[in-house]
Design goal:
The protein has about 475 residues and is α/β, with parallel strands linked by helices. The chain has three domains: about 120 residues, Rossmann fold, CATH 3.40.50; about 180 residues, Rossmann fold; about 130 residues, Roll (CBS-domain). Helix content is about 35%, strand content about 15%. The chain has 15 helices and 15 strands. Strands 1-2-10-7-8-9 form a six-stranded mixed sheet, sandwiched between helices. Strands 5-4-3-6 form a four-stranded parallel sheet, sandwiched between helices. Strands 13-14-15 form a three-stranded mixed sheet. A hairpin with a 2-residue loop joins strand 14 and strand 15. The longest helix is centred in the middle third of the chain and has 17 residues. The chain is globular.
Length: about 475
């Protein structure tokens, strides 16, 4: 029986899994090794929730509210448009309660999140992330349309669901208040759906009405929210790589009237701060955590007296290991600046001298080569000897020709199957020379005399050109 079928069977017997009882009541700790100016900075570890994010709180609240209101009945279908984390919480809870769940996810989301929700039993629809409201593939419009077409469907609509901010007003806020011993000066929050900032603002306004708690917005550069807070005008949205926060519209449930200051954080700063958090504090947070922490550090360093400031580890960085914690992805996206060489070396994404190239030796077996190619998700590997000289290249077609008649040939040496007619270029070659290699159906091997520097693929050239697009 599949895991989702087991959860559904237990739900039918009225036995929800105990893991749901671990939602909320997350720890709060102080940042001690990063420069926080004169302030004390505390982070609430929402990555300790069952699916690793703050969204577990609102997922549970919104499903239970829908059940109470009769909007979601046994055998129903839960549908939501999500950047991933709300979807994870909904998938866990819907499965526990025996509901079918369909999630509509923009295509910029990390593969880890998509794999996780599928493992929890969710059906996934991937749509475009480069379109806005009114387009048929805009994720919220797509989800709303699905809910109209499927009988018994409930569209969660976290962006307009009042149970979302209520979850934070009733749980997150009181937890922080007690953990901080009723002594909070500022809270730094982002806006995805708007539930966190709205619920916390209402809670703090109630428990500290006279002195107040500064509500600070940290927003990805490209989002419209900072400009809206400062000018009350809705400008034109740009693009950003941080996931889960930032918007091109004002969510229906977002009450930004309590915000006292706002910071626009570039992606590169968000990723740098998140990686610094891991190195210095040992906390593995996601991309939105980097934005919030960057905003909190800016706020703290501007102060002239000590303040007690709270922000969030919104979700776990395990969901971003293929992205902002991956040096190759960071370089490909332009978030890591290498020293430019002014020649083809600038196009090599994986450099042999830095140990970044997946390669095999001539005496390795074809099975070893296949495992390395599969593990790195590449279709070819260079064959490099012990002296660092490129002897050949082995691709999937070479492997297939060798082993298709007898799988025992996986034990043969790479030397027996590789292509030794290499398309080599010197670093001083031109892009036109590179295109000519591609036109011959080859991958370019860059050599500095006898020294192998790395490969250049079509993808490497496209990534290089994309980073040089006009802003």
């Amino acid at each position: 029986m599949a895991p989702t079928e087991i959860l559904a069977a237990e739900a039918a017997r009225g036995k929800p899994p105990e893991i749901l009882s671990l939602i909320g009541d997350t720890p709060l700790i102080q940042i001690t090794r990063m420069d926080t100016g004169p302030c004390q900075l505390f982070v609430k570890l929402e990555n300790q929730n069952p699916t690793g994010s703050i969204k577990d709180r609102v997922a549970l609240a919104m499903i239970e509210a829908a059940e109470r209101d009769g909007k979601l009945i046994p055998g129903g279908t839960v549908i939501e448009a999500t950047a991933g984390n709300t979807g994870l919480g909904l998938a866990l809870i819907a499965g526990a309660k025996g509901y079918r769940i369909i999630l509509v996810i923009p295509d910029k989301m990390s593969q880890e999140k998509i794999s996780h929700v599928r493992a929890l039993g969710a059906e996934v629809r991937i749509v475009r992330s480069d379109v806005t409201r009114g387009h048929p593939e805009y994720y919220q419009d797509y989800a709303a349309r699905l809910a109209e077409e499927i009988p018994g469907a409930f569209y969660v609509n976290q962006f307009g669901n009042p149970a979302n901010p209520e979850a934070h007003e009733r749980s997150t806020g009181p937890e922080i208040w007690e953990q901080m011993r009723h002594d909070v000066d500022a809270c730094v929050v982002g806006v995805g759906s708007g539930g966190t900032i709205t619920g916390l603002s209402r809670f703090f306004a109630r428990v500290r009405p006279r002195r107040g708690v500064d509500m600070i917005l940290a927003d990805p550069e490209g989002s419209i929210l900072v400009d809206f807070v400062k000018t009350k005008q809705i400008g034109e949205a740009g693009s950003w790589a941080v996931e889960g926060i930032g918007e091109d519209f004002i969510p229906d449930i977002a009450d930004l009237s309590y915000v006292t200051d706002a910071f626009s954080i570039p992606d590169v700063e968000s990723f740098r701060v998140a990686r610094e958090l891991l190195r210095k504090e040992g906390i593995l947070g996601g991309s939105s955590t980097g934005t919030l922490l960057a905003g909190a550090l800016r706020y703290c360093r501007r102060q002239t007296r000590r303040k007690r400031v709270v922000t969030f580890i919104c979700d776990t960085g395990n969901k971003y290991l293929s992205k902002m914690y991956n040096d190759f992805w960071m370089a490909e996206q332009g978030f890591v600046q290498r020293q430019p060489q002014g020649d083809l070396r600038d196009l090599i994404s994986h450099r042999h001298e830095a140990g970044e190239v997946i390669s095999v030796g001539p005496d390795d077996t074809l099975l070893t080569a296949f495992k390395r190619m599969s593990g790195a998700d590449v279709s070819q590997v260079p064959v490099v000897d012990a002296n660092g000289r490129a002897l050949g290249i082995l691709d999937e077609s070479d492997l297939l020709v060798k082993v298709h008649s007898d799988p025992a040939h996986f034990n043969d040496r790479v030397l027996s199957a590789m292509t030794d007619k290499l398309e080599t270029l010197s670093p001083s070659a031109t892009v036109r020379d590179l295109i000519a290699v591609f036109d011959r159906g080859r991958v370019a091997i860059v050599m500095d005399r006898e020294k192998f520097l790395g490969l250049i693929t079509r993808t490497d050239l496209l990534a290089y050109l994309r980073l040089r697009m006009p802003k």
